[in-house]
Amino acid sequence: MSSPRSLLSLAAALIAGSLLVACPAVYPEIKTPVRVVRAGQALDPPPPNDVRWIAFKGARIPALTRDGRRWGNDLATGLPDAYAKLTINGVEALRTSIEKGTLTPSWAKSPRGNFRIQGQDKLRVEIWDTRVFNDHPIGIKDLGSMGAYDQRGLEEIQEECDSGATFTMSNEPAHGFVGYGLFYELRTYEAYVTRVYEESPASRLGIRPGDQIVSVDGQPVRGMAEGEVQSRFNAPAMQGLELSLRHEDGSTVTVTLKEGAVYPLFREIGAFE
């Protein structure tokens, strides 16, 4: 008959074994190198027409509401605690921080970045006053599509809301950096692509998340020393890296990946200057 101690040891071993089976190995994601754009440097390819860099640059709010009331929280001084948000096709895409007690918020440290905006997309700007229970609208402006602004070459939009409040918003060509635009993970003997920026050299070559990196510059990944894959991605490669990839459907392809323009979208990277 087994002793209580041996039964406890057996139970502990079984639990530990089940945890090992239930919890797959977690590998760190590695980002390929990026380089900032030098002053005057032209990116290749240039920014796509349907990706714009959007940032709220400030607003001017009337001292009183249309019906003569003061702004502000119910227990505040009367000045609004203002924030702005941009919606695209009715979905919130960008929201500033709250700037307290001012009629001229600048939102200088608020999120901004690259957004894909198609020709038929409808944009709307809303300015709100933060309140204790329910936020109060300060002003709304339906911008419609960006075509009219782009045709006039406007990289800064200044508009007046229905309440008389005005705002300024950047509408610049996409901002970018130089790199490959992909992330990968190194498993025990293999390497896999985990993420690819939509507007990047990797994406333009058809590299996809889930692709297995079979070889780099003709050298099989399985036979490389520890850290060699990362070293090859990190080293400058004027002629590019030759990658052999196996897609998730089993098909294989060999491509030459060269550094080029990367225009990360807000939903991929968050705030981007």
Can you tag this structure with a few keywords?
273 residues; alpha+beta; Pdz3 Domain; four-stranded antiparallel sheet; 5 helices
Per-chain topology:
Elements (H helix, E strand, L loop, with lengths): L3 H19 L6 E3 L2 E2 L15 E10 L21 E7 L2 E5 L17 E4 L6 E7 L6 E9 L2 H5 L4 E5 L5 E8 L3 E3 L2 E5 L4 E6 L4 H4 L7 E5 L2 E2 L7 H7 L6 E6 L5 E6 L2 E3 L3 H4 L4
Antiparallel strand pairs: 1-12, 2-11, 3-6, 3-10, 4-5, 4-7, 7-8, 9-10, 11-18, 12-13, 14-15, 14-16, 16-17
Examine the coordinates and then state which fold CATH places here, giving the name of the CATH topology of the largest domain. Answer: Immunoglobulin-like
For the termini, the CA-CA separation is 70 Å
Q: Residue share in helices?
A: 10-25%
CATH superfamily heading of the largest domain: C2 domain
CATH class of the largest domain: Mainly Beta
Range of strand content:
35-45%
How would you spell out the order of helices and strands?
Answer: HEEEEEEEEHEEEEEHEEHEEEH
Number of helices: 5
General shape? elongated
Radius of gyration: 26 Å
Count of strand segments = 18
3D structure, described in words:
The protein is of the alpha+beta class and 273 residues long. It folds into two domains: 26-45 and 178-267, PDZ domain (Pdz3 Domain, Roll), CATH 2.30.42; 51-173, Immunoglobulin-like (Sandwich). Helices cover 14% and strands 35% of the residues. The protein contains five helices and 18 strands. Strands 6-3-10-9 form a four-stranded antiparallel sheet, with no helix packed on it. A four-stranded antiparallel sheet has the order 5-4-7-8, with no helix packed on it. Strands 15-14-16-17 form a four-stranded antiparallel sheet, with helices on one face. Strand 14 and strand 15 (219-220) form a beta hairpin. The protein is elongated. The termini are far apart.
